[in-house]
Design goal:
With 509 residues, chain A is of the alpha/beta class. Helices cover 27% and strands 22% of the residues of chain A.
Chain lengths: 509, 509
């Protein structure tokens, strides 16, 4: 399908369409970094965010960055952006690794011209809604987690000032995410910001005696430290525990997924695995745990956002190590603090295609969700079926590109909205990186993977074509009306290498 | 004194003389890095160093780099350089963090034109001797440890290929120094090389199952992995234990140094400290240990190369943490492997003046040695009194510049060679960064430190001027004959900021 992507987009620039997934023409040298010099005994502590902003001398048109490890409990983006609003700055680009409902303040800043650009790997809630309605001046750029690190490192996203929420911090700006009242675990999405921004500001509510340890971000890249009352609401930061689904439909999908994994031939000693924090994804992990114990197979690593369920598998000895870019629950935070084989992983190490080898490149199996899938196995996790932005790739496109086996697990429809469509509303993850779709009413295999099809036949594992699966679905839901959009491009779905996989247009209500 | 430094040096270029120690005119942006891209499943393992060299396509005139964490037991530099010789490459610059007697092979490579440049922070043995004799085509550049990281990061030293001796390694190039038969501890001097070289090659004798942990250098910067029989001789890598001196003269110096520290007013709760691995330096640590216990004062951190003696003080709770750039003995390696508060420290974090705050900038007290000191407190640790190169700054100039109190501990003369001279043979560390000289026959205080002089008077601590101390010394040794040199510049003593503190001329035998 022609995604109807123009060659030039106002407020974005020239467009290179996503083609070859490993396109050398897109490689750039990494950006240089401005160096600074402070004399011995230099004091980095400042009284307030306002004082830092004045000292940095932030200008109209600047790009400021934030990480999302405090998730929907984050106070830092709001604290900084409301100071920026007070200063009367205009035309600011917010490069936040993700944007959540708690960041609703941005809607006002979009409407009053303080913020005219957004670059992020995921957004949901009122800000995503405002962008979908065309209220942001420039198109929002939706990146992958690995692509965001790449974009920063290659200078496409030049950050004037990075504001790093720091659960644990000392007076010289050594930072971790495992101490303090806002402990959130790994800080993988903040590393590129800390290493490439012109100025780096640690914002903390917990200054410990120097030196803080462990140190995930170190003082040699941090310029200012500000103590505030609270950087986040623990209730929104991590859930107590993430849970395996109890829904029988979800359990059926997980059980069928396990059969796919077993038939794939990849479950050998030392295999690697990634799954999400959702109920079905965790149910797959549970199935896998049982299978590994029964078959006495041990894996090498699990990567990604890490949950207590995965920690438990590692602590039982089923996996040698965890590569953690963000902790999803308190058990994961606890393990990240205690276990030497629970390893930090920057977004660069996780999924940047332009380095000497990211972790996703070595992944055997990834289990992912989807909002929509089309007949070419293209996946949408960016927009809802109403055309509004409600997510973004995060690590979806990164892991799909790297893993030997990418399995989408999803119900075939929910509330009469079908999973499988002729065309996805937004192309987030290219179909050639997606291998199998498992639903409660059948499993479809990408015809590009004849090797898998052969394996499934050999093991008598039932599967169908995606067209057949769509027919099953259509009997229940009918064909939904297409989303009505006008010409205005409100956001760009950028593939991990910096090319454009799709554009998102303004929804007509 | 005019150090007689020309404005332009053939084989080096324009000279900026060391002036202001924090000269903003010398700041540069960091260099960009060439990015690479490998497809999923890419194999980094190669059969031999020769195979890697062919694949990298190294050219005449290239710069190759090495770290010195295997010290005088290192095999890796020799293995790589002999392959480079076999390939017939010419005009190679060796950017090794230090060069030891075990690297004697370089003398042949210098003489046959394979190697025409050397950049290092320290050199001793036959290679230093050959350089002193003017056999290397271009002047060797002697850097500080922090300055070497700066030079690499700012692109002054562009590394075509970094060869990283890797005591522990996995198939994707994750590296540490704490596992394997050549375990050497921290790898602080290899970090800038790994992050900025065009190609990074891990050379190991111990491939472990993926993923290796802990990871000091990660796979996202490593391009090739080669397994060889042995990367080093454990006997030359670390000593069993480093020892406090038993020499009464050394013990007297240590005891008098302790009085200086106590009088300085710096020994307060949370103070920081660095000392070397030599016998007198360790005797100072022992005095300090006793004082801290008696006075119930605890420190924050000890930095630098770390010894078992310092580990013991940390494990007793006298210091909160250690910042370790290299481990000097097996006890330090053991602690670095086990203790979470024994922290890794890159050379950049250690002493680079051009970042957001190096550890030396926050150091209260450093204890250093000296070969010569002049009447302006300038220190030479680069050349012997015969004018031959036998060392280099290492971290000497970095720590002196950063610490609030820099104390030189040394015998006043040894074998009729005096410590104090009218002019140092080579100016390694500028006198304005040196505060006190403690010898067995008296203590001299830099007149720039009137505050210290006042403190010493208040505490009735005896001290003298450096001229007085020189008079004492001259009575024993007489004034030695000046070293005879010709005009040829054989090496450059580069200050940490990239300026030139001195030149070293060819010795006339």
């Amino acid at each position: 399908m022609d995604r109807n992507i123009p060659d030039f987009i106002e407020g974005y620039g020239e467009v290179k369409r996503t083609g070859n997934l490993f396109d050398r023409a897109l490689l750039k040298e990494t950006a240089g970094r401005n160096v600074r010099m402070y004399e011995p005994g230099h004091n980095k502590m400042r009284e307030s965010i306002a004082e830092v902003l004045r000292e940095i001398d932030l200008k109209d048109g600047a790009t400021v960055s934030f990480h999302h490890h405090l998730r929907n409990g984050d106070f830092v983006l709001n604290l900084v952006m409301s100071e920026i609003e007070k200063m009367g700055l205009k035309d600011i680009t917010v490069a936040a690794s993700s944007i959540f409902p708690c960041h609703e303040i941005l809607v006002r800043l979009i409407d009053n011209g303080t913020v005219t650009g957004i670059k992020t790997a995921y957004m949901s809630g009122p800000v995503a809604c405002a962008v979908s309605e065309g209220r942001l001046k420039n198109p929002a750029v939706l990146m992958t987690h690995g692509g965001r690190a790449r974009s920063i490192m290659e200078g496409e996203t030049h950050i004037d000032a990075a504001f790093i929420a720091a659960p644990g911090c000392d007076r010289l700006g050594n930072i971790n995410g495992v101490t303090g009242k806002a402990a959130c675990g790994a800080l993988g999405y903040a590393i590129a910001d800390a290493e490439y921004a012109d100025k780096v500001v640690a914002i903390t509510d917990d200054i410990v005696d120097y030196p803080l340890y462990p140190q995930e971000i170190k003082q040699n890249v941090v310029d200012y430290v500000v103590k505030v009352d609270s950087i986040g609401d623990p209730k929104g930061i991590v859930s107590g525990t993430t849970q395996v689904t109890k829904d029988p439909v979800g359990l059926k999908i997980a059980s069928d997924t396990m059969k796919v994994l077993a038939a794939s031939g990849l479950l050998k000693e030392g295999f690697s695995f990634q799954t999400g924090a959702g109920g079905i994804s965790l149910a797959v992990a549970k199935e896998l745990e049982t299978w590994m114990k029964k078959n006495e197979i041990k894996g090498s690593f699990v990567s990604g956002g890490i949950t207590g369920y995965i920690v438990n598998m590692m602590e039982e000895g089923l996996f040698k190590a965890l590569y953690d870019v963000q902790c999803f629950d308190l058990e994961a935070v606890r393990s990240y603090r205690e276990n030497r084989n629970h390893l930090p992983m920057s977004a660069d190490l996780y999924g940047n295609p332009h380095n000497s080898g990211c972790v996703t490149n070595d992944l055997d199996i990834v289990i992912l969700g989807a909002t929509e899938v089309d007949l070419n196995f293209n996946v949408n996790v960016t927009t809802g079926s109403d055309g509004r932005i409600m997510g973004g790739s995060g690590g979806h496109a990164d892991t799909a590109a790297g893993a030997k086996l990418t399995v989408i697990v999803s119900k075939l429809f929910s509330a009469r909205t079908p999973l499988i469509k002729d065309h996805v509303t937004t192309l987030t993850t290219p179909g050639k990186t997606v291998d199998v779709i498992v639903t409660e009413r059948g499993t479809a295999v990408n015809p590009l993977r004849q090797d898998l099809i052969e394996q499934f036949k050999k093991k008598n594992l039932p599967f169908m074509t995606i067209e057949e699966l769509k027919e099953v679905s259509d009997r229940f839901t009918g064909t939904p009306n297409p989303v009505k959009t006008d010409d205005k491009i409100v956001a760009i779905s950028q593939y991990r290498d910096g090319s454009v996989s799709d554009v998102i247009r303004k929804v007509i209500k």
